[in-house]
Write a structure and sequence with these properties.
binds flavin-adenine dinucleotide, Rossmann fold, 311 residues, Elongation Factor Tu (Ef-tu), domain 3, binds NADP nicotinamide-adenine-dinucleotide phosphate, alpha/beta
Protein backbone atom coordinates (compact mmCIF):
# COMPACT_ATOMS: atom_id res chain seq x y z
CA UNK A 1 0.00 0.00 0.00
CA UNK A 2 0.95 3.68 -0.40
CA UNK A 3 3.96 3.03 -2.62
CA UNK A 4 3.35 6.39 -4.26
CA UNK A 5 2.47 9.30 -1.96
CA UNK A 6 0.12 12.07 -3.14
CA UNK A 7 2.89 14.58 -2.40
CA UNK A 8 5.13 12.83 -4.98
CA UNK A 9 2.69 11.47 -7.55
CA UNK A 10 3.66 9.51 -10.65
CA UNK A 11 2.42 10.16 -14.17
CA UNK A 12 0.05 7.81 -15.93
CA UNK A 13 -1.18 8.13 -19.51
CA UNK A 14 -4.84 7.71 -20.47
CA UNK A 15 -5.46 4.77 -22.80
CA UNK A 16 -9.23 5.22 -23.24
CA UNK A 17 -12.20 6.90 -21.57
CA UNK A 18 -15.64 5.61 -22.52
CA UNK A 19 -19.17 5.64 -21.07
CA UNK A 20 -19.97 2.32 -19.39
CA UNK A 21 -23.68 2.78 -18.77
CA UNK A 22 -26.52 0.67 -20.03
CA UNK A 23 -28.41 3.44 -21.81
CA UNK A 24 -29.23 7.15 -21.91
CA UNK A 25 -29.26 8.71 -18.46
CA UNK A 26 -28.89 12.02 -16.67
CA UNK A 27 -25.68 10.61 -15.14
CA UNK A 28 -22.32 10.17 -16.84
CA UNK A 29 -20.10 7.31 -15.73
CA UNK A 30 -16.95 6.34 -17.59
CA UNK A 31 -14.66 3.32 -17.79
CA UNK A 32 -11.26 5.01 -17.69
CA UNK A 33 -8.07 3.07 -18.44
CA UNK A 34 -4.64 4.47 -17.57
CA UNK A 35 -1.19 3.15 -18.47
CA UNK A 36 1.10 3.19 -15.43
CA UNK A 37 4.07 1.36 -17.05
CA UNK A 38 7.48 2.18 -15.55
CA UNK A 39 5.97 3.58 -12.35
CA UNK A 40 5.89 1.88 -8.92
CA UNK A 41 2.15 1.31 -9.49
CA UNK A 42 2.84 -1.14 -12.33
CA UNK A 43 2.25 -4.71 -11.16
CA UNK A 44 1.73 -3.73 -7.53
CA UNK A 45 -2.01 -3.03 -7.23
CA UNK A 46 -4.61 -5.66 -6.35
CA UNK A 47 -8.28 -5.98 -7.29
CA UNK A 48 -10.39 -4.29 -4.61
CA UNK A 49 -7.84 -1.57 -3.85
CA UNK A 50 -8.15 2.07 -4.85
CA UNK A 51 -5.68 4.68 -6.10
CA UNK A 52 -5.33 8.44 -5.78
CA UNK A 53 -5.76 11.16 -8.41
CA UNK A 54 -4.33 14.63 -7.99
CA UNK A 55 -6.22 17.17 -10.11
CA UNK A 56 -3.95 19.79 -11.69
CA UNK A 57 -4.34 23.41 -10.58
CA UNK A 58 -5.34 24.97 -7.28
CA UNK A 59 -8.45 24.97 -5.12
CA UNK A 60 -10.40 28.10 -4.11
CA UNK A 61 -7.90 28.70 -1.28
CA UNK A 62 -4.98 28.69 -3.73
CA UNK A 63 -3.73 25.31 -2.46
CA UNK A 64 -3.06 22.23 -4.63
CA UNK A 65 -6.14 20.06 -4.94
CA UNK A 66 -6.37 17.29 -2.36
CA UNK A 67 -6.06 13.72 -3.56
CA UNK A 68 -9.31 11.86 -4.37
CA UNK A 69 -9.57 8.08 -4.26
CA UNK A 70 -11.03 5.89 -7.03
CA UNK A 71 -11.66 2.15 -6.88
CA UNK A 72 -9.78 -0.08 -9.27
CA UNK A 73 -12.18 -1.69 -11.74
CA UNK A 74 -9.59 -4.14 -13.07
CA UNK A 75 -8.18 -7.43 -11.82
CA UNK A 76 -4.75 -7.62 -10.21
CA UNK A 77 -3.23 -8.27 -13.65
CA UNK A 78 -4.70 -5.02 -14.97
CA UNK A 79 -6.52 -4.41 -18.24
CA UNK A 80 -3.51 -5.60 -20.22
CA UNK A 81 -2.78 -8.85 -18.38
CA UNK A 82 0.58 -7.55 -17.15
CA UNK A 83 -0.42 -5.04 -14.46
CA UNK A 84 0.61 -2.03 -16.55
CA UNK A 85 -2.86 -0.65 -17.29
CA UNK A 86 -5.29 0.06 -14.47
CA UNK A 87 -8.90 1.18 -14.73
CA UNK A 88 -11.61 2.86 -12.71
CA UNK A 89 -15.23 4.01 -12.98
CA UNK A 90 -15.51 7.78 -12.41
CA UNK A 91 -18.94 9.37 -12.22
CA UNK A 92 -19.35 13.09 -12.94
CA UNK A 93 -20.44 14.86 -9.76
CA UNK A 94 -23.04 17.31 -11.17
CA UNK A 95 -25.52 19.03 -8.94
CA UNK A 96 -26.99 22.35 -7.90
CA UNK A 97 -25.13 24.20 -5.15
CA UNK A 98 -26.50 23.40 -1.70
CA UNK A 99 -25.28 24.99 1.54
CA UNK A 100 -22.78 22.62 3.16
CA UNK A 101 -21.52 24.61 6.13
CA UNK A 102 -22.81 27.37 8.37
CA UNK A 103 -22.35 30.69 6.56
CA UNK A 104 -22.76 29.24 3.05
CA UNK A 105 -25.01 31.31 0.80
CA UNK A 106 -28.41 29.60 0.88
CA UNK A 107 -29.46 31.50 -2.27
CA UNK A 108 -26.64 29.98 -4.32
CA UNK A 109 -28.15 27.26 -6.46
CA UNK A 110 -25.79 27.51 -9.41
CA UNK A 111 -24.33 24.41 -11.05
CA UNK A 112 -21.96 22.51 -8.72
CA UNK A 113 -19.24 20.52 -10.49
CA UNK A 114 -17.07 18.11 -8.53
CA UNK A 115 -13.41 18.89 -9.22
CA UNK A 116 -11.73 15.55 -9.73
CA UNK A 117 -14.59 13.46 -11.11
CA UNK A 118 -15.19 15.96 -13.93
CA UNK A 119 -11.45 16.28 -14.57
CA UNK A 120 -11.25 12.49 -14.97
CA UNK A 121 -14.35 12.24 -17.14
CA UNK A 122 -13.00 14.99 -19.44
CA UNK A 123 -9.66 13.22 -20.09
CA UNK A 124 -8.80 11.96 -23.57
CA UNK A 125 -6.53 9.15 -24.75
CA UNK A 126 -2.90 10.30 -24.48
CA UNK A 127 -3.53 12.79 -21.63
CA UNK A 128 -1.27 12.61 -18.59
CA UNK A 129 -2.67 12.18 -15.08
CA UNK A 130 -0.97 12.38 -11.65
CA UNK A 131 -1.53 9.29 -9.50
CA UNK A 132 -0.76 7.89 -6.07
CA UNK A 133 -1.46 4.60 -4.27
CA UNK A 134 -2.30 1.80 -4.17
CA UNK A 135 -4.63 2.30 -1.20
CA UNK A 136 -6.52 0.12 1.27
CA UNK A 137 -6.26 -3.52 2.34
CA UNK A 138 -9.81 -4.17 3.65
CA UNK A 139 -11.55 -4.98 0.38
CA UNK A 140 -9.39 -7.72 -1.08
CA UNK A 141 -10.30 -11.21 -2.23
CA UNK A 142 -9.20 -13.99 0.10
CA UNK A 143 -5.88 -15.75 -0.46
CA UNK A 144 -7.67 -18.97 -1.47
CA UNK A 145 -10.74 -17.80 -3.41
CA UNK A 146 -12.08 -21.36 -3.84
CA UNK A 147 -12.47 -21.68 -0.06
CA UNK A 148 -15.34 -19.19 -0.02
CA UNK A 149 -18.69 -18.25 -1.52
CA UNK A 150 -19.49 -14.61 -2.19
CA UNK A 151 -22.24 -12.04 -1.90
CA UNK A 152 -21.17 -8.83 -3.64
CA UNK A 153 -23.44 -5.82 -3.01
CA UNK A 154 -23.08 -2.58 -4.98
CA UNK A 155 -24.86 0.74 -5.35
CA UNK A 156 -23.89 2.95 -8.31
CA UNK A 157 -20.15 3.29 -8.88
CA UNK A 158 -19.66 0.95 -5.92
CA UNK A 159 -19.73 -1.69 -8.69
CA UNK A 160 -16.16 -0.78 -9.73
CA UNK A 161 -14.21 -3.23 -7.54
CA UNK A 162 -16.49 -6.15 -8.45
CA UNK A 163 -15.68 -5.86 -12.15
CA UNK A 164 -12.04 -6.52 -11.27
CA UNK A 165 -12.80 -9.19 -8.67
CA UNK A 166 -15.17 -11.10 -10.95
CA UNK A 167 -12.67 -11.03 -13.79
CA UNK A 168 -10.11 -12.37 -11.33
CA UNK A 169 -12.42 -15.09 -9.98
CA UNK A 170 -14.00 -16.24 -13.21
CA UNK A 171 -11.42 -15.58 -15.91
CA UNK A 172 -8.33 -16.61 -13.97
CA UNK A 173 -5.52 -18.11 -16.10
CA UNK A 174 -5.67 -21.26 -13.92
CA UNK A 175 -9.40 -21.77 -14.63
CA UNK A 176 -12.57 -20.31 -13.13
CA UNK A 177 -13.38 -20.33 -9.43
CA UNK A 178 -16.22 -22.82 -8.81
CA UNK A 179 -17.64 -21.10 -5.72
CA UNK A 180 -21.15 -19.64 -5.58
CA UNK A 181 -20.97 -15.92 -6.44
CA UNK A 182 -23.93 -13.53 -6.29
CA UNK A 183 -23.68 -9.91 -7.41
CA UNK A 184 -26.49 -7.50 -6.50
CA UNK A 185 -26.30 -4.13 -8.27
CA UNK A 186 -28.51 -1.19 -7.25
CA UNK A 187 -29.14 1.83 -9.50
CA UNK A 188 -31.95 4.36 -9.94
CA UNK A 189 -32.89 3.26 -13.48
CA UNK A 190 -32.06 0.33 -15.75
CA UNK A 191 -30.15 2.75 -17.97
CA UNK A 192 -27.80 3.52 -15.03
CA UNK A 193 -26.59 -0.08 -14.71
CA UNK A 194 -22.81 -0.17 -15.18
CA UNK A 195 -20.91 -2.88 -17.09
CA UNK A 196 -24.30 -4.57 -17.49
CA UNK A 197 -23.47 -6.47 -20.69
CA UNK A 198 -20.22 -7.75 -19.18
CA UNK A 199 -22.02 -9.17 -16.12
CA UNK A 200 -24.78 -10.67 -18.24
CA UNK A 201 -22.23 -12.47 -20.41
CA UNK A 202 -20.38 -13.74 -17.32
CA UNK A 203 -23.68 -15.08 -15.95
CA UNK A 204 -24.37 -17.01 -19.14
CA UNK A 205 -20.83 -18.43 -19.16
CA UNK A 206 -20.67 -19.49 -15.49
CA UNK A 207 -23.48 -21.41 -13.76
CA UNK A 208 -22.05 -20.45 -10.36
CA UNK A 209 -22.28 -16.70 -11.04
CA UNK A 210 -25.65 -15.01 -10.42
CA UNK A 211 -26.31 -11.40 -11.42
CA UNK A 212 -29.23 -9.54 -9.77
CA UNK A 213 -30.31 -5.94 -10.34
CA UNK A 214 -32.27 -3.78 -7.88
CA UNK A 215 -33.73 -0.77 -9.70
CA UNK A 216 -35.00 1.83 -7.26
CA UNK A 217 -37.11 4.14 -9.44
CA UNK A 218 -38.83 1.81 -11.86
CA UNK A 219 -42.06 0.08 -10.81
CA UNK A 220 -41.98 -3.66 -10.17
CA UNK A 221 -44.50 -6.00 -11.82
CA UNK A 222 -46.41 -6.21 -8.49
CA UNK A 223 -46.92 -2.42 -8.47
CA UNK A 224 -44.25 -1.49 -5.92
CA UNK A 225 -42.24 1.66 -6.69
CA UNK A 226 -38.95 -0.13 -7.16
CA UNK A 227 -36.50 -1.62 -4.70
CA UNK A 228 -33.21 -1.21 -2.92
CA UNK A 229 -30.73 -4.05 -2.67
CA UNK A 230 -32.00 -5.14 0.76
CA UNK A 231 -35.57 -5.45 -0.58
CA UNK A 232 -34.23 -7.64 -3.37
CA UNK A 233 -32.53 -9.88 -0.78
CA UNK A 234 -35.84 -10.05 1.09
CA UNK A 235 -37.79 -10.85 -2.09
CA UNK A 236 -35.34 -13.65 -2.94
CA UNK A 237 -34.99 -14.90 0.65
CA UNK A 238 -35.23 -18.59 -0.35
CA UNK A 239 -32.32 -18.14 -2.75
CA UNK A 240 -30.11 -16.11 -0.39
CA UNK A 241 -30.73 -17.91 2.92
CA UNK A 242 -28.60 -21.00 2.10
CA UNK A 243 -25.80 -18.75 0.81
CA UNK A 244 -25.84 -16.49 3.89
CA UNK A 245 -26.19 -19.36 6.34
CA UNK A 246 -23.18 -21.13 4.77
CA UNK A 247 -20.04 -21.22 6.89
CA UNK A 248 -17.75 -20.08 4.06
CA UNK A 249 -19.64 -17.08 2.67
CA UNK A 250 -18.09 -13.60 2.54
CA UNK A 251 -20.15 -10.42 2.11
CA UNK A 252 -18.67 -7.37 0.34
CA UNK A 253 -20.53 -4.04 0.42
CA UNK A 254 -19.50 -1.07 -1.75
CA UNK A 255 -21.22 2.22 -2.53
CA UNK A 256 -23.53 4.56 -0.62
CA UNK A 257 -23.15 4.50 3.17
CA UNK A 258 -26.94 4.20 3.55
CA UNK A 259 -26.98 0.73 2.04
CA UNK A 260 -25.57 -0.81 5.25
CA UNK A 261 -28.68 -0.05 7.25
CA UNK A 262 -31.01 -2.14 5.10
CA UNK A 263 -28.48 -4.95 4.83
CA UNK A 264 -27.86 -5.31 8.57
CA UNK A 265 -31.57 -5.02 9.32
CA UNK A 266 -32.27 -7.75 6.78
CA UNK A 267 -29.58 -10.03 8.22
CA UNK A 268 -30.74 -9.48 11.81
CA UNK A 269 -34.42 -9.93 10.94
CA UNK A 270 -33.64 -13.41 9.64
CA UNK A 271 -31.08 -14.25 12.33
CA UNK A 272 -28.35 -14.41 9.69
CA UNK A 273 -26.13 -11.64 11.05
CA UNK A 274 -24.07 -13.52 13.66
CA UNK A 275 -21.21 -14.55 11.36
CA UNK A 276 -20.95 -11.20 9.64
CA UNK A 277 -21.13 -8.70 12.47
CA UNK A 278 -21.19 -8.27 16.21
CA UNK A 279 -24.05 -6.27 17.71
CA UNK A 280 -23.09 -3.92 20.53
CA UNK A 281 -24.61 -1.58 23.03
CA UNK A 282 -26.87 0.95 21.33
CA UNK A 283 -28.66 -1.95 19.63
CA UNK A 284 -29.19 -4.08 22.75
CA UNK A 285 -32.84 -5.01 23.07
CA UNK A 286 -33.86 -2.99 19.99
CA UNK A 287 -35.80 -4.61 17.17
CA UNK A 288 -33.92 -4.28 13.85
CA UNK A 289 -36.85 -2.38 12.37
CA UNK A 290 -36.17 0.64 14.61
CA UNK A 291 -32.37 0.79 14.16
CA UNK A 292 -31.09 4.15 12.92
CA UNK A 293 -28.01 4.87 10.75
CA UNK A 294 -26.29 6.44 13.78
CA UNK A 295 -26.94 3.38 15.97
CA UNK A 296 -25.63 1.08 13.23
CA UNK A 297 -22.42 3.10 13.01
CA UNK A 298 -21.72 2.55 16.70
CA UNK A 299 -23.47 -0.75 17.29
CA UNK A 300 -22.49 -2.95 14.33
CA UNK A 301 -18.94 -4.26 14.13
CA UNK A 302 -18.30 -6.29 11.00
CA UNK A 303 -16.33 -9.52 11.36
CA UNK A 304 -13.64 -10.65 8.92
CA UNK A 305 -16.43 -12.16 6.81
CA UNK A 306 -18.00 -8.78 5.99
CA UNK A 307 -16.03 -6.16 4.02
CA UNK A 308 -17.40 -2.61 3.89
CA UNK A 309 -16.33 0.19 1.53
CA UNK A 310 -19.12 2.72 1.87
CA UNK A 311 -19.06 6.53 1.81
P1 LIG B 1 -15.46 17.52 -4.97
O1 LIG B 1 -15.01 18.68 -5.74
O2 LIG B 1 -14.54 16.96 -3.95
O3 LIG B 1 -16.85 17.80 -4.36
C1 LIG B 1 -17.40 16.89 -3.44
C2 LIG B 1 -17.63 17.64 -2.16
O4 LIG B 1 -18.32 18.84 -2.43
C3 LIG B 1 -18.51 16.84 -1.23
O5 LIG B 1 -17.73 16.12 -0.33
C4 LIG B 1 -19.36 17.89 -0.57
O6 LIG B 1 -18.69 18.39 0.56
C5 LIG B 1 -19.41 19.00 -1.57
N1 LIG B 1 -20.65 18.96 -2.37
C6 LIG B 1 -21.19 17.89 -2.99
N2 LIG B 1 -22.32 18.22 -3.60
C7 LIG B 1 -22.49 19.54 -3.39
C8 LIG B 1 -23.49 20.47 -3.76
N3 LIG B 1 -24.55 20.09 -4.48
N4 LIG B 1 -23.35 21.75 -3.37
C9 LIG B 1 -22.29 22.14 -2.64
N5 LIG B 1 -21.31 21.30 -2.25
C10 LIG B 1 -21.42 20.01 -2.62
N6 LIG B 1 -16.10 7.88 -7.10
C11 LIG B 1 -16.33 7.43 -8.35
O7 LIG B 1 -16.95 8.12 -9.16
N7 LIG B 1 -15.87 6.20 -8.77
C12 LIG B 1 -15.15 5.38 -7.94
O8 LIG B 1 -14.74 4.31 -8.34
C13 LIG B 1 -14.88 5.87 -6.61
N8 LIG B 1 -14.18 5.13 -5.75
C14 LIG B 1 -13.95 5.59 -4.49
C15 LIG B 1 -13.20 4.80 -3.62
C16 LIG B 1 -12.95 5.24 -2.33
C17 LIG B 1 -12.13 4.37 -1.39
C18 LIG B 1 -13.47 6.49 -1.92
C19 LIG B 1 -13.21 6.99 -0.53
C20 LIG B 1 -14.20 7.26 -2.77
C21 LIG B 1 -14.44 6.83 -4.08
N9 LIG B 1 -15.14 7.61 -4.98
C22 LIG B 1 -15.38 7.13 -6.25
C23 LIG B 1 -15.54 9.00 -4.65
C24 LIG B 1 -14.40 9.98 -5.14
O9 LIG B 1 -13.26 9.82 -4.28
C25 LIG B 1 -14.80 11.46 -5.05
O10 LIG B 1 -15.25 11.73 -3.75
C26 LIG B 1 -15.88 11.84 -6.04
O11 LIG B 1 -15.47 11.56 -7.39
C27 LIG B 1 -16.18 13.35 -5.95
O12 LIG B 1 -14.98 14.04 -6.10
P2 LIG B 1 -14.92 15.46 -6.83
O13 LIG B 1 -13.52 15.98 -6.72
O14 LIG B 1 -15.50 15.37 -8.20
O15 LIG B 1 -15.89 16.33 -5.97
P1 LIG C 1 -26.39 5.94 -7.91
O1 LIG C 1 -26.14 5.66 -9.35
O2 LIG C 1 -27.22 7.11 -7.55
O3 LIG C 1 -27.06 4.61 -7.32
C1 LIG C 1 -27.31 4.48 -5.97
C2 LIG C 1 -28.49 3.56 -5.80
O4 LIG C 1 -28.62 3.22 -4.43
C3 LIG C 1 -29.80 4.22 -6.22
O5 LIG C 1 -30.64 3.27 -6.81
C4 LIG C 1 -30.36 4.71 -4.90
O6 LIG C 1 -31.77 4.83 -4.91
C5 LIG C 1 -29.95 3.55 -4.02
N1 LIG C 1 -29.97 3.89 -2.60
C6 LIG C 1 -30.09 5.11 -2.02
N2 LIG C 1 -30.14 4.99 -0.69
C7 LIG C 1 -30.05 3.67 -0.42
C8 LIG C 1 -30.08 2.92 0.77
N3 LIG C 1 -30.20 3.49 1.96
N4 LIG C 1 -29.98 1.57 0.69
C9 LIG C 1 -29.86 0.96 -0.51
N5 LIG C 1 -29.84 1.62 -1.68
C10 LIG C 1 -29.94 2.96 -1.63
O7 LIG C 1 -25.03 5.94 -7.08
P2 LIG C 1 -23.73 6.84 -7.26
O8 LIG C 1 -24.11 8.25 -7.54
O9 LIG C 1 -22.81 6.15 -8.22
O10 LIG C 1 -23.11 6.80 -5.81
C11 LIG C 1 -22.31 5.74 -5.38
C12 LIG C 1 -21.62 6.08 -4.06
O11 LIG C 1 -20.63 5.09 -3.82
C13 LIG C 1 -20.90 7.41 -4.04
O12 LIG C 1 -21.18 8.00 -2.79
C14 LIG C 1 -19.41 7.05 -4.13
O13 LIG C 1 -18.58 7.97 -3.48
C15 LIG C 1 -19.40 5.71 -3.44
N6 LIG C 1 -18.30 4.83 -3.90
C16 LIG C 1 -17.49 4.30 -2.96
C17 LIG C 1 -16.47 3.48 -3.37
C18 LIG C 1 -15.57 2.90 -2.36
O14 LIG C 1 -15.68 3.24 -1.23
N7 LIG C 1 -14.64 2.05 -2.73
C19 LIG C 1 -16.29 3.15 -4.70
C20 LIG C 1 -17.15 3.69 -5.64
C21 LIG C 1 -18.18 4.53 -5.21
P3 LIG C 1 -32.55 6.25 -5.01
O15 LIG C 1 -31.56 7.26 -5.52
O16 LIG C 1 -33.66 6.00 -5.96
O17 LIG C 1 -33.02 6.54 -3.62
Amino acid sequence: MNLVKPSKPVTGRVVANELCMNGKSSSFVKHLTIDVSDTPLAGTFRAGQSFGVITPGKDEKGKPHKVRLYSLACPTWGEDGAGNVLSTTPKRLLDEHRPQRRGDDSDNHRLFLGVCSNYLCDLNAGDEVSLSGPNSKRFLLPVDPDDHDYLFLATGTGIAPYRGMLEELLNAPGGPCKSQIHLVMGTPYTSDLLYHDYFEVLATQHDNFHYHTAISREPLPDGRRGRYIDSLLEDKLNEFTPLLAGSRTLIYVCGLAGMQLGLFKFLARHDLDGDYCERRKPLDGLAPEVWTPEQIKRGIHPTGRCMLEVY
